[in-house]
Amino acid sequence: MKVLGIESSCDETAAAVYDGERGLLAERVHSQADLHAAWGGVVPELAARDHVRRLPRLVQSVLADAGITTRDLDGVAYTAGPGLVGALMVGAGYGRALAYALDRPAVAVHHLEGHLLAVLLEPDPPEFPYLALLVSGGHTMLIDVEGIGRYRVLGETLDDAAGEAFDKTAKLLGLPYPGGARLAELAERGRAGRFAFPRPMRDRPGLDFSFSGLKTAVALAVRGRILDAADSADLARGFQAAVVDSLVEKSLRALEATGRSRLVVAGGVGANLKLRSALKAAAESNGMRAYYPRPSLCTDNAAMIALVGHERLLHGERAPLAVTAQPRWPVDALMAPGSSGAAA
Ligand code: KG4
Ligand code: ZN
């Protein structure tokens, strides 16, 4: 079964083709980062309009890369939420209409389920169950993944998401939007220990996160200072160390609480090298194993949407003909594919 995946929930337009036997055949991502940079953040209306401009050609290109035409598709999967409603409606409208025109089934996919299962596209994927640390621009969550569609949220951020904190702190340091990855690069050149920021929520029980206080601590350290290159790098290093420590600490707590031995790191911040090495070391020293999708499967992509769509289409799940998007959609409201009521 060949499934076209479409992702347009935020500021990446993406398309991919997944084949049940041969795996991922092709994928493409167009980032709108340059479009939004001038505004210092994603402008929802601009995002939606750019998806309209890019999506049809992107789909044609990805089909050509896969060496197939629309006629060879067995189904279409599109991200139906959560995300920006205008942006979501572009992918949902296009995907639903294409499936209708081709007389093929369509399926509405949950964006976070895509992130949670993206690791299954890797050659040596973990078995179920596993604990997932989902860290992106919009979410920071610890989720117990018992199987496809069986998710239990154990903890989440009470304020900013980890990626959001990276981006906002990068902005404070004068880095262009989206600054998360640039801040991480800058941190590599910084000195450890010059700025010791608080480790949010470390002393509190439970598995929730909080990052807005940390961002404020950086803002206070920056205030009244004219930053030279060394200051910025040292601040970046101090900030990143605090975020990484907080994520590692809560992940270990969650592994202990659930008794899971496999940790999967997902979402855009999962591309952070410091976080990856710290989690790997922490997991291994506790006799557990950490799994990461490659960085391009951590950030938003359509390969993960095509994969989830394939699983759900196989079990007979179908999107209704009406084009709908769910900007808010709790991930633990999902059900295992094939169980009654699973259709979006
Ligand atoms: O998953 P994603 O592509 O989009 C969302 O669904 O949010 O995540 C994007 C987030 C942004 O906040 C970006 O700054 C952050 O991931 N990010 C990073 C790194 N690469 C991307 N944050 C820290 N270090 C990185 N290397
Ligand atoms: Zn995402």
How would you explain this protein's 3D organization?
The structure is a single chain. The protein is an alpha/beta fold and 344 residues long. The protein has two domains: 2-116 and 298-333, ATPase, nucleotide binding domain (Nucleotidyltransferase, domain 5, 2-Layer Sandwich), CATH 3.30.420; 129-292, Nucleotidyltransferase, domain 5. 42% of the residues lie in helices and 19% in strands. It has eleven helices and ten strands. It has helices at 33-37, 44-66, 85-102, 111-117, 162-172, 180-188, 212-222, 229-258, 273-285, 295-298, 303-314; strands at residues 2-7, 12-19, 23-31, 75-81, 106-110, 130-135, 140-147, 150-156, 262-266, 289-291. The strands form two sheets. Strands 3-2-1-4-5 form a five-stranded mixed sheet, sandwiched between helices. The protein has a five-stranded mixed sheet with strand order 8-7-6-9-10. Helix 3 (85-102) links the parallel strand 4 (75-81) and strand 5. Helix 2 (44-66) packs parallel to helix 3 (85-102), helix 4 packs across helix 11 and helix 8 runs parallel beside helix 9. The longest helix is centred in the C-terminal third of the chain and has 30 residues, at 229-258. The chain is globular, with a radius of gyration of 20 Å. The mean pLDDT is 95. It binds 5'-O-[(R)-(carboxyoxy)(hydroxy)phosphoryl]adenosine (KG4) and zinc ion (ZN).
Keywords:
single chain; alpha/beta; Nucleotidyltransferase, domain 5; five-stranded mixed beta sheet; binds 5'-O-[(R)-(carboxyoxy)(hydroxy)phosphoryl]adenosine; binds zinc ion
- Tell me the name of the CATH homologous superfamily of the largest domain: ATPase, nucleotide binding domain
Order of helices and strands: EEEHHEHEHEEEHHHHEHEHH
Q: Could you report the average pLDDT, rounded to the nearest whole number?
A: 95
Q: Outline, from the CA principal axes?
A: globular
Poorly predicted segments: none
Q: In percent terms, what proportion of residues is strand?
A: 15-25%
Count of folded domains = 2
